[in-house]
Amino acid sequence: MKKQIKDHAKIKTLLRPCPICGSGKGEVLHTQKFLMPQQYYSLPSAYDVVACVKCGFTYADTDASQQDYDRYYQLNSIYEDEKTGRCSEHSEYNRKRIAEIVRDVMRTCPDKTAKIIEIGCAGGNILKALKSEGYTDLTGVEPSAKCVAHILSCGITGVQGTVSAASRLLGGKKFDYVILSHVAEHIYDLRETLYSCADLMDEGAMLYVEVPDAARYTEFYVDP
Q1: Longest Cα pair distance anywhere in the chain, in angstroms?
Q2: Following DSSP, what letter does each residue of 58-118 receive, concatenated?
Q3: 54, 18 Cβ separation under 8 angstroms
């Protein structure tokens, strides 16, 4: 369904075309500003959150590159601290969210020997929960070296890298189940990411994608 644009909406020419349909026009929903310490390199100190006027896809209209964001998540990860990180299992909210994901995986992939990979796995809490349920072939890919070290210490295969490099880093291994939990919203090039996921997937494999509900941000302290 084509998005209906309100008369008073602010329409702009986008810094980057819509990742879904390629349209060059978007409705500005919100301008997000950041405090950007110097070590965050060339990430912008602000960007518009926009909705494509053609297909309605909502995303950050930023002039940073995928390489800029890859470097940020490699060197300045907010997921490294086991107790206070954004995906910390010490958070009641995250424990419930992880439990729901694990139930979904178990329902759609009951084979405990299935080859499962999580891209952007942070400290590996989803993978650890799957291991506790008896899954035996688990792999995590994560830009942060500290997160990967933690995954390895838990007896789970961990590889430092991004989704675009995952297939090469893993020697072309194919998987039965690919998990992207709260990852797609951090990705600049969605089309290339889907191609990269396809490279990891065996015939008949499943792709699990979970993203925050952008329409409900004001209702939650953390990502809904």
Answers
A1: 56
A2: EEEE----HHHHHHHHHHS-SS--TTTSTT-TTSHHHHHHHHHHHHHHHHH---TT-EEEE
A3: yes
Category of 122 on φ-ψ map: left (φ > 0), alpha (ψ -120 to 50) or beta: left
Hey, what are 220's tokens? 């939650």
Q: Could you tell me which residues come within 8 angstroms of residue 210 by beta carbon, excluding any fewer than 6 positions away?
A: 101, 180, 181, 182
Q: State the pTM of this model.
A: 0.82
User: Cβ-count burial of 219 within 10 angstroms (0-12 exposed, 13-18 middle, 19+ buried)?
Assistant: exposed
Q: Which helix (H) or strand (E) holds 145?
A: helix 145-153
For the record, the structure tokens of 169 come out as 């880093």
What is the tens place of the pLDDT at every residue in 29-88? 889 888 776 665 578 889 999 999 999 999 999 988 888 888 887 776 666 555 544 555
